[in-house]
Amino acid sequence: MSKLEFGPMPDAQGYFGEYGGQIIPPELQAVMNDIDKAYEEIRQMPEFQDELKTLFADYIGRPSALFHARRLSEKLGGAQIFLKREDLNHTGAHKVNHCLGEALLAKYMGKTKVIAETGAGQHGVALATACALVGIPCEIHMGQVDIEKEHPNVVKMKILGCTLIPVTRGTATLKDAVDSAFEEYLKDPQNYIYAIGSVVGPHPFPKMVRDFQSVIGEEAREQFLSRFGKLPDYLTACVGGGCNSIGLFTAFLNDEDVQMVGVEPAGKGLDTDQHSATLTLGKPGQIHGMKCYVLETEDGEPMPVHSIASGLDYPGVGPQHSYLKDLGRVQYATATDQECLDAYMMLSRVEGIIPALESSHAVAWAIRTAPTLSKDKTILINISGRGDKDADYVAELLKL
Ligand SMILES: *Cc1c(COP(=O)(O)O)cnc(C)c1O
Fold first, then answer.
1. Interacting residues of 63 by C-beta distance below 8 A, sequence separation 6+
2. What's the number of domains the chain is made of?
3. Which residue segment(s) compose the domain that 203 sits in?
4. Which atom of ligand 1 is nearest the CA belonging to 386?
């Protein structure tokens, strides 16, 4: 196996190449630097590492399984397909990996409240779960329009004991929920913590969230090596903010022979204005306190984005992905809403595994690519979450 040499990232100022940083007022930079300091402290502490390891095992159910999708591989007639089953985690997706880390950090720092926004409610449920476990108050801001659309997640958050703040201003969707949650946070940033839901936002969040998610790739690398004595040829994962994909990729970055592909939503087509392919069609800019690739309108506002998978519609993307794209270490591809639906149905019917619509983007890439590769090649897909949450919506679209 040949080796590349990626050192530790980001640098001390939070930069991955030219991306990342802390594009926020100096008072907030000081608060972020305190979070970074506390994080660097606990990650060196054996007690913290032990606690996290035990919770990963006994609470989340890690390591998540590595599954050989034999029937799908046979049907496609090319590369062998493997699935990393993050859908089997407690709460049904990968987000709990970093929410647990963030909740433990908040507790260590003596924060009195964890605040976040949520769009479709996935981040809200994972965070409310982690806060219930750790025993720290949690406040989730959610647009009224989303509250009406996402009833199951709304009631779950209430059952888990978080305070749900309905946001009625503006369009009453994710963007307004972000503003509302951020205003609440600014009332007392010393005592509150804003728990960011992906590898985005100001330093140290892109680093911290990546570190908590890196368990995915560390496990997969070990599972593959011990079972097959070699590494996969391709890794693929969907990219919204980019945390499940960076979580899979990190342990393999220095393995030169392992090719990595992040899959963005092409929505209704890259030639329409209804997609969310930030790395594919965006350009370097600024959003939410960081420098990264951004999809912008002509007047420099974040573009309204679209994807069939609500967890992927974000006009920015993690700074580390922006850097890895420029370096060419990771390739970024896209899948349309239609390809994603087809992939959702195919994995369900051929393997009995219903993937989240988000994860289905990576499945769609594998379905397209496997037949072009020989049978001795392997593709590992990260199944970031389970698709029960999307079942009613898919049934309606396909008139099942
Ligand atoms: C939130 C979510 C995503 C997208 O987030 P990333 O930060 O890109 O990983 C992907 N899959 C599922 C199941 C999600 O809930």
1. 219, 223
2. 2
3. 16-56+94-210
4. 13
322 located within any domain: yes
Report H helices in 45-173. Answer: 46-55, 70-76, 95-108, 122-134, 144-149, 151-159
> Which stretch of DSSP H or E encloses residue 120?
none
Give 357 Cα–ligand 1 centroid separation in angstroms.
10
Low-confidence ranges of the chain (pLDDT < 50): none
Active site residues: 95, 117, 384
- State the closest ligand 1 atom to the C-alpha of 247, by its place in the atom list counted from 1: 9
Residue 6 falls within a domain, yes or no?
no
How many Å lie between the centroid of ligand 1 and the Cα of residue 309? 9
- Taking the complete model, does pTM exceed 0.90, yes or no? yes
Contact 166, 142 (CB under 8 A): yes
| pLDDT value of residue 150 | 87
Ligand 1 near 235 CB (within 6 A): no
Using left for φ > 0, alpha for ψ between -120 and 50, and beta otherwise, residue 175 falls in: alpha
* Residue 2 pLDDT: 61
Please check whether residues 223 and 248 belong to one and the same domain: yes
Q: State which of 94, 125, 363 you would mutate to test the pocket of ligand 1, scoring each by most atoms of that ligand within 8 A of its C-beta.
A: 94
Last residue of some domain: 177, 210, 243? 210
> What's the CA gap between 69 and 58, in Å, rounded?
26
Cα(109) to ligand 1 centroid in Å equals 27
